[in-house]
Design brief:
Elements lengths: L1 H11 L3 H7 L4 H13 L6 H11 L11 H11 L3 H13 L1
InterPro entries: Cro/C1-type_HTH, Lambda_DNA-bd_dom_sf, TransReg_Diox_bact_type
Protein name: Putative transcriptional regulator
GO molecular function, one term: DNA binding
Length: about 100
């Protein structure tokens, strides 16, 4: 989770402090708290992690993927419409 959090934040082009502030953290501690999450010293609760995912534009599942390819797929799938997701499921089940 820590590595994916850092990757998603950097891809969004925002600092640790800015992300923390967007999540409602006090500006004086936002950078430090986000740094602890990115270093794996602390884990955000699921509600906070969901807000982080929303703020960074990634699905919550992105943070729990075992591989980079699964994480990338999670992001791509999230962008699909429900209809396209159903079609993809049918195609994959047919294989």
């Amino acid at each position: 989770m820590p590595t994916r959090l850092k990757e998603a934040r950097k891809a969004s082009g925002i600092s640790q402090k800015e992300l923390g502030i967007r999540l409602g953290m006090d500006p004086s501690s936002a950078s430090g708290r986000m740094n602890h999450y990115e270093k794996g010293r602390h884990m955000p609760d699921i509600a906070t992690l969901r807000r982080i995912a929303d703020e960074l534009g990634v699905p919550l599942s992105y943070f729990f993927c075992d591989s980079d390819s699964s994480a990338k797929l999670a992001c791509l799938i999230e962008k699909l419409s429900e209809e396209d997701k159903e079609e993809l499921i049918r195609k994959l089940e047919d294989n």
